[in-house]
Amino acid sequence: MIKEEVIKRINKVFEKDFEIDLKRLKPDAQIFNDLGLDSLDIVDLVVALQKEFSVTIRDDARVRNIRTLNDIYDFILLLGEERKKENIKE
Amino acid sequence: MLTLKKLILNTAFYLFFFLLTILYTVVLTLLMIGVRVLSSDHEVNRQLRLGIRWYGRILIWVLPQPFLKVKYTNKSRQENKDLPCIVICNHRSSSDPFLMACLSFDLIQIVNKWPFRIPFLGWVARLSGYLSVNEMSFEEFRYRCGNILDQGVSVVAFPEGTRSGSRAMGQFRSATFRIALEKKVPIVPLCITGNEDKPLRGSFWLNPGTILIHKLPPVPYEEFKDFSPFKLKNYIRDIIERETKVMDSQK
Q1: Which of A1, A76, B78, B173 has its CA 20 to 30 A from that of A70?
Q2: pTM, entire model
Q3: Average pLDDT over chain B, rounded to an integer
């Protein structure tokens, strides 16, 4: 996955599931303070991202370090790379 | 002149506040022992909440007079229709929980830990069924809140989670909105202005002036049944923000 594609798909999740205007989706936007999500909304976000990217992230401890939108982009990209490596091993 | 007013207001208010609180707690405790012998726990809780409401009314409408006034306006056509409901309130000051005494229906408040730590008041609040949201998981909160609504008792929440101490309004948390969607109950927006300095955050000093409370018409379940919790919390937040801006500009 290239970063532009990941950004586009994640932003689409925010737009569709949370009805947040695309203009507000800046990479440095804080998930809690700027976009207004709380810990329960994060659970909904995780579910939506899992569905969008067919990944399992609910039990991933790294989710707790996510603060900004850019952190989500990077996290999903990293998951993609990890999955690619696993596929090569197999 | 303002300083003298402030001094008189605070001296008189806190003196009578302490006396009233102690007297009320003793009388209420004795009454509750009597009621408990004759009726159920639910009835005891209900009577306690009634006692709290009248205590709050004396506190907000009698004690601070004449320097601090509380003006309550019900902007819905019918009082106490669509009950039980979830009342959603903006949160500027520690006086907010006391101001809920203006509402004339049976309710419990969802509070932070600190109100439960207040001697007498905290104990009575806990006994009457008030919920400390930070002391339980969301699952437990959902279960207990659902039970309260099933009993026909309304729930008051301050979804900012903490008082802003200013005219600004924080982001809303979605927990109570999820319950409104699940239990299909209406949401009543309640807007409070003028109390951001009554008292100021981190202070006990009350400042003279007027506190305005507007109870807006209920938002029925049918209006938000297709909303996500995230959309619903922001929808209600926008309603409250619009009204508080108008109220602030009237001063």
Answers
A1: B173
A2: 0.88
A3: 91
